[in-house]
Amino acid sequence: MRLAYQYRLRLTTQQKTTIDRWLELCRRQYNYRLAERFNWYEKNRCDVNACPLVCHLPELKDRPDFYSQKRDLVNSKKLFPEYKELPSHTLQDVIARVEKAFDRWLSGDSNGRRNGKPRFKGQGRFRSIAFPDPVKPEHIDGRFIQLPKIGKLKMILHRPMPDGFKVKTAAIIKKVDGYYITLSLQDLSVPVLTPDVPTLENTIGIDMGLKAFLVDDSGKDEPIPQHYRKAEKRLKRLQRSLSRKKKGSSRRKKAIKRVSKAHLKVSNQRKDFHYKTAKKLLSQGKHVAHEKLNIKGIARGRLAKSTHDAGWGQFLQILSIKAERAGLMAIAVNPSGTSQNCSGCGTKVPKTLKDRLHACPKCELTIDRDHNAAINIKHLAVGHSVNKAQVTSDAVAGVTEKPTSYTDA
């Protein structure tokens, strides 16, 4: 089992200065290695797909990869001796980040999803350094952890480390309110739990929404906290104050810090709500079925601010991780028709987004729209069909309809 624990650091002034200097050196190295790859890409790509027998195309250069750039770190340390301060594996991790960002832009990840073109890191935009080497047990002494070339760092142990776990990697992260360390813990003796087959008895269906954060198949809802909406008035005031400050001044830096702290508080509140909601769902010991929504598509419309404030993507990611550790599953189902079809008989009951009540004219089932969708999601997760009546009626009439979009679901 692999866990990640994050602790706040209590650093000395000298340690803060060292970490800030290392972050700046890593930022420059990141930009330099990324520029090398961009130069290779611009000089080697060509739109010409045919040429005459005699042509004078420029000779192609070798593509810089992780290993070639890692070998070139020796030259960087000769030209810039300050890079000798950093641990070698920390610099290699910077090149690994460049490799990951560049390859995902060109060819995509394992699922074929491509990211946007990577950008150069501006000053203060490189906020974390990694120590990929495992931390030995003798280098952890109570509240202190010893890292290479920086010495002992004091942590605030707000929760103890689990027994039997070894620290595989460590990463120091700089946030607006201080410095944090994230420890990756692993224990191979912990068995991997095999989840049971989803059934109607051991599965919960939830429907995500903006009126309520979620509604389960029993009709219970979780109110949506709207952390950003509540902090929006104060954020506007802080942003107006920031816009009046002269660029480059010390007062502008202080104003930027105030705005960043306000946004960080909203982010922490949202994440805390997501963790507590996921724990409440999984404490019942049942699988959780949810819609596989196109969140990026929804966030492009008029509900963008409310969608981002709800944070569905972060919640579903947390729910999936916590369910796996509990030996359960977070099952994503196709949302098409989950709100339109009746959960009692399967008849299609057309609705618009403003219609919040489901009233079936055939079986006379009258419940909340989200409650009806949660029941349908649960049935789909266990392999049951919720639109048998619709399929039968369409086959008799000889009509084929397109599936509903995510906005109608």
Automatic annotation (TrEMBL):
Cite the residue spans of the region called Disordered.
240-261
**Record key words, sorted:** DNA recombination, DNA-binding, Metal-binding, Transposition, Zinc
Q: Which Pfam families match?
A: Cas12f1-like_TNB, HTH_OrfB_IS605, OrfB_IS605
- Where does the Probable transposase IS891/IS1136/IS1341 domain lie? 196-299
Ranges for domain Cas12f1-like TNB: 312-377
Transposase putative helix-turn-helix domain: residues covered:
1-45
List the NCBIfam families hit by this protein, alphabetically. guided_TnpB
UniProt family annotation: In the C-terminal section; belongs to the transposase 35 family.
| Descriptive protein name | Transposase
